């Protein structure tokens, strides 16, 4: 049975719209094809290609214009090249299409300026936007102040407020209007002035009405926070007003007072914070000035007392006046320690590493010297600015009298001093509250076991050199002005102690170093030695190079690298103008060139019984002990050097403390027996 298939409604029309020709399929033809007939086959018996899906084939559409362009292109061989990017001396405008969130080159037809002749005469233009608050239809986006009288008034009210300039022709304030919240009290006081002109008073009243309506909730919240001494993280910006003094932690048990510039909410790897850019007063080795300080208030939940925040305004401190006076007193000590000073220190210090600053414990004497600190390769000076406040003037001379800052500037001084730890031999940052005057050992030089003539000579030479009385000069200016003393002898006879006792008696720093501190390469040794000699001369310190045999040993043709070290050492010492002590155990191998450069050579012999008794007595007098004259004579007969006696007394004292007894010969004998490898039964 043969019949035509029915066409779905609209299918033919859809095919024509898309550019296809709809072909109806004959069922009988299909049947014939199924029975093996070759209907529609080509001359070779191949079937025609199948129609596209849906029973239709695509129709090629070529317009007359397209065909003409194609013919022209084929004739010309190519099209005209495009214009090079950015080559035209012109500009193009594109416009934001708010409906589909895209840019377009077509200018919207229904757009006209929101501000113009209809708004130009108003004192204030209020720009409204749809409110996200379900209780409001609109909320203020920003306020444009156009009144000249109002601009003058706001110039007084918002004076020195960061980011605000009331002299602009177009003065715009955006929500949440932080300047007005922070200066709300000043605005109310200004409105109460009796000398205001009528226009100014009217415009101020208008502005107050607008702000009161918009900021009413914020102002009320601020008043509640101040009254109850609490705040939320969301409203933390309200209590941190620009130019206010805030206190923040600065090391273990330390606080720093800083002046707030501005603040903003931010996201960090450690969580949300209210970040604040502040200023402190600092010293860079040459001048006082403002240095930047960045502090962060971590996010907290709910309401929290302001005084319990890690960072808060000084005005909210329970003992504000006492803290202020303490900060001023500390600032005066900081200013007095500008330049370089020799002090004692016992407490935490900051050491700079590749991973940032770390806390280290430092006990001993330090040299405060920010200028030399900043010249070290791994350190950097605090960037300061003196142009923000003319009262922070420049101090040219490092040893000049400190300039007089104001109490406000003293209060904002950093609690950190920079300098050198003599014991640790490191450049560190020190907290000023742990810096103390040095307790000098007045008996150190008297207890020095040396012949009286040698002691007198050493002290006279050192004092004269330090006082710069020695004006003797070489033929070449600046050469040979130093004082070099060579101390030679066996270990433990007092060579190092001599330099220590001299520095203690003269109240000057002792810079101790060994050959290992200078490096091994000639270039490295030269650079390090130059820096050390420069600093020691600046500090008027005594320099001690202990066990300097590597520099004193005679040169040979078989070791050129060591010859370079000796030559460098000889050349630099020629121009050193301070006091230098050299110690060695092998004076017989000294290079002849050194012999002519040494002013005094002191030879130390092995200790005599009398010298050993004096050393025993000097150590035992410093602690509770019970020794008879006979016991001291017996101990003096034991062949020990000074260093061995010191170590033995220290060990015996620890033993006595463990037994809770007074140090006696019994404890010393026990330690001696252990040292000798046996015990007395």
Give your account of this protein's structure.
Residues 28-43 have a biased composition (Low complexity). Residues 481-608 form the AAA+ ATPase domain. With 681 residues, the chain is α+β, with helices and mostly antiparallel strands. The chain is built from 21 helices and 27 strands. The protein folds into 5 domains: 1-34, no CATH class; 124-228, no CATH class; 230-439, no CATH class; 452-603, 3-Layer(aba) Sandwich (Rossmann fold), CATH 3.40.50.300; 609-676, Orthogonal Bundle (Helicase, Ruva Protein, domain 3), CATH 1.10.8.60. The strands form 8 sheets. It has a 6-stranded antiparallel sheet. Strands 15, 16, 18, 19 and 20 form a 5-stranded antiparallel sheet that branches. β22 (510-514), α14 and β23 form a beta-alpha-beta unit. The longest helix has 31 residues, at 198-228. The chain is elongated and about 110 Å long.
What order do the helices and strands come in, and which of them pair?
Blueprint: H1 11-17, E1 20-22, H2 27-34, E2 56-58, H3 64-76, E3 95-97, E4 102-104, E5 124-130, E6 138-145, H4 148-157, E7 171-174, H5 178-182, H6 184-191, H7 198-228, E8 230-232, H8 236-239, E9 245-249, E10 255-268, E11 271-283, E12 288-298, E13 303-305, E14 312-313, H9 320-336, E15 340-353, E16 356-369, H10 370-374, E17 384-385, H11 407-411, E18 416-421, E19 426-431, E20 435-436, H12 452-466, E21 483-488, H13 495-506, E22 510-514, H14 522-539, E23 542-546, H15 549-552, H16 560-574, E24 579-584, H17 592-595, E25 600-603, H18 609-620, E26 625-626, H19 629-636, H20 642-659, E27 663-664, H21 665-676
Helix pairs in contact: 6-7, 14-16, 18-19, 18-20, 20-21
């Amino acid at each position: 049975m043969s019949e035509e298939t029915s066409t779905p409604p609209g299918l033919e029309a859809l095919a024509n719209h898309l550019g296809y020709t709809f072909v109806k399929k004959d069922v009988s033809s299909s049947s014939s094809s199924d029975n093996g007939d070759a209907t529609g086959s080509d001359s070779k018996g191949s079937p025609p290609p199948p129609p596209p899906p849906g029973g239709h084939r695509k129709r090629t559409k070529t317009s007359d214009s397209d065909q003409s362009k194609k013919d022209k292109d084929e004739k010309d061989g190519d099209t005209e090249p495009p214009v090079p990017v950015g080559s035209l001396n012109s500009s193009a405008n594109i416009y934001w299409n708010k409906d589909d969130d895209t840019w377009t080159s077509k200018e919207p037809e229904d757009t006209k300026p929101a501000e113009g002749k209809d708004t130009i005469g108003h004192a204030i233009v209020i720009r409204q936007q749809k409110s996200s608050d379900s209780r409001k239809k609109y909320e203020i986006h920003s306020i444009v102040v156009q009144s000249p009288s109002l601009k003058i008034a706001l110039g007084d009210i918002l004076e020195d407020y960061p980011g605000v300039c009331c002299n602009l022709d177009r003065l715009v304030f955006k929500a949440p209007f932080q300047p007005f919240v922070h200066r709300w009290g000043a605005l109310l006081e200004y409105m109460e002035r009796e000398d205001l002109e009528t226009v100014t008073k009217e415009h101020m009243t208008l502005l107050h009405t607008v702000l009161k309506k918009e900021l009413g909730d914020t102002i009320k919240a601020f008043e509640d926070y101040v009254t109850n001494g609490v705040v939320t993280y969301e409203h933390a910006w309200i209590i941190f007003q620009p130019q206010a003094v805030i206190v923040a932690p600065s090391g273990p048990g330390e606080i720093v007072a800083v002046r707030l510039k501005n603040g903003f909410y931010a996201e960090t790897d450690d969580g949300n914070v209210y970040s604040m850019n502040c200023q402190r007063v600092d010293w860079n080795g040459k001048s006082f000035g403002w240095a930047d300080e960045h502090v962060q208030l971590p996010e907290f939940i709910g309401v929290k007392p302001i005084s319990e925040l890690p960072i808060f305004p000084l005005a909210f401190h329970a003992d504000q006046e006492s803290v202020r006076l303490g900060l001023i007193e500390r600032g005066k000590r900081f200013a007095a320690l500008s330049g370089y000073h020799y002090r004692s220190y016992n407490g935490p210090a900051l050491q700079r590493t590749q991973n940032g600053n770390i806390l280290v414990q430092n006990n001993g004497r330090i040299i405060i010297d920010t200028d030399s600190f900043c010249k070290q390769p791994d350190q950097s000076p605090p960037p300061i600015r003196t142009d923000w406040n003319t009262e922070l003037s420049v101090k040219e001379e490092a040893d000049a009298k400190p300039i007089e800052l104001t109490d406000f500037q003293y209060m904002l001084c950093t609690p950190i001093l920079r300098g050198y730890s003599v014991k640790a031999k490191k450049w560190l940052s020190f907290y000023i509250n742990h810096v103390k005057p040095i307790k000098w050992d007045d008996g150190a030089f008297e207890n020095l076991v040396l012949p009286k003539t040698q002691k007198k000579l050493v002290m006279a030479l050192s004092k004269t050199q330090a006082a710069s009385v020695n004006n003797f000069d070489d033929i070449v200016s600046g050469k040979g002005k130093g004082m070099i003393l060579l101390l030679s002898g066996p270990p433990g006879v007092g060579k190092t102690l001599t330099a220590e006792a001299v520095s203690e008696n003269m109240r000057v720093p002792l810079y101790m170093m060994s050959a290992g501190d200078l490096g091994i390469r000639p270039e490295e040794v030269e650079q390090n030695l130059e820096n050390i000699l420069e600093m020691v001369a600046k500090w008027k310190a005594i320099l001690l190079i202990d066990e300097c045999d590597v520099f004193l040993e005679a040169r040979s043709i078989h070791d050129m690298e060591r010859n370079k070290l000796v030559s460098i050492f000889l050349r630099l010492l020629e121009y050193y103008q301070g006091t230098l002590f050299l110690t060695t155990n092998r004076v017989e191998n000294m290079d002849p060139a050194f012999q002519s450069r040494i002013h005094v050579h002191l030879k130390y012999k092995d200790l005599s019984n009398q010298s050993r008794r004096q050393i025993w007595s000097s150590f035992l007098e410093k602690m509770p002990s019970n020794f008879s004259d006979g016991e001291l004579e017996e101990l003096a007969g034991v062949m020990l050097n000074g260093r061995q006696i010191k170590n033995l007394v220290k060990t015996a004292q620890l033993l006595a403390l463990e037994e809770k007894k007074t140090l006696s010969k019994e404890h010393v004998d026990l330690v001696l027996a252990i040292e000798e490898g046996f015990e007395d039964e």
